[in-house]
Amino acid sequence: MRQLLTIALLIFSNVFMTLAWYGHLKFAEWKWFNKLGLAAVILISWGIALFEYCFQVPANKLGFKGNGGPFSLVELKVLQEVITLLVFTAFTLIVFKNETFRTNHLIGFVFLVLAVYFIFKK
C-alpha cells in the first residue's frame, strides 16, 4: 500500500512541478499573461510549486525505509526521476503539440528504465 501511495504522490508532485517549470511557456499565449513581468511569472510558478512540495514531502516521508516505507533513498530518487520524465513527456506531447517524441528520446528512456532496474536489483 505504501508503495502505491508513494508513487501516486510522486506523480501528483511531478504534475505540479512540470506545470510550475514549463507551464508559463504555454501560458504566454494568453494575452493577459503575456503582459506580466518576469517577477510575476516567477511568483505564479512559485505558487504552483508549493503544491509540488505538498505531495513530494509526504511521498518521501511515507516511502523512505527509515520511516517504515518500502524504498531506500536512492530508490526514491531514481523512481522520482523516471516519473518526472514520464510526466514531462506526457505534458509536452499533450500541451505543446509542435513537440515530437523521437527515436533517440525513446532510446534514452529505455536506458533510464534500465537504470531503475539496476538500482532496484538486490
From TrEMBL:
InterPro entries: DUF486 (IPR007437)
Segments traversing the membrane: 36-55, 76-96, 102-120
Signal peptide span: none
Keyword tags: Membrane, Transmembrane, Transmembrane helix
Pfam families (alphabetical): DMT_6
PANTHER family in the cross-refs: DMT FAMILY PROTEIN
This protein's name: DMT family protein
